[in-house]
C-alpha cells in the first residue's frame, strides 16, 4: 500500500467517525457514500473502487451504531417492491391475454365447424379457417 492510499484510508475512517457521531465538517452529514467521500475529501469513485471494504464497513457501522438502514438500501428495497408489483401486474395481464386468445381461437374453430361445406362465405374475411389434420 502506498502512502497516498494509506492517507485516503485514514481520512475515510476519520470521516466515518465524524458522520456517525453527528459532527460533519461539510455537507449535511447524511449517512451516504457520497457524504462520506465528501467528508473525507476523496472522490466517491475512489471510495467505491479502491476502498470498497471501507464503504461496506461504513454501511455496517450505520446499521449497528445508528440502528438505521442505509439510504441506498432503503431506496433499493422500495424499488424492489415496486418492480415486484409491476411484474405481478404484467404476469396477470399476460395470463388474461392468453386466456382471451384461447377463447377466440376456440370460438373461431366452433364457427368454422358449424358451417356446412361450401358455405365458408358466411365467415367474415378476417377469420382464417383452420385446416384439420385429415384434410
TrEMBL record:
<protein>
    <recommendedName>
        <fullName>TetR family transcriptional regulator</fullName>
    </recommendedName>
</protein>
Amino acid at each position: 500500500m502506498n502512502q497516498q492510499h494509506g492517507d485516503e484510508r485514514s481520512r475515510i475512517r476519520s470521516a466515518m467517525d465524524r458522520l456517525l457521531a453527528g459532527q460533519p465538517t461539510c455537507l449535511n452529514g447524511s449517512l451516504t457514500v457520497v457524504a462520506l467521500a465528501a467528508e473525507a475529501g476523496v472522490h466517491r469513485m475512489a471510495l467505491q473502487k479502491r476502498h470498497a471494504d471501507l464503504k461496506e464497513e461504513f454501511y455496517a457501522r450505520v446499521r449497528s451504531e445508528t440502528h438505521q438502514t442505509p439510504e441506498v438500501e432503503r431506496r433499493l428495497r422500495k424499488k424492489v417492491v415496486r418492480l415486484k408489483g409491476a411484474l405481478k401486474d404484467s404476469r396477470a395481464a399476460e395470463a388474461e391475454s392468453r386466456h382471451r386468445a384461447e377463447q377466440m381461437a376456440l370460438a373461431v374453430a366452433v364457427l368454422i365447424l358449424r358451417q356446412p361445406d361450401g358455405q365458408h362465405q358466411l365467415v367474415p374475411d378476417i377469420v382464417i379457417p383452420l385446416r384439420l389434420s385429415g384434410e
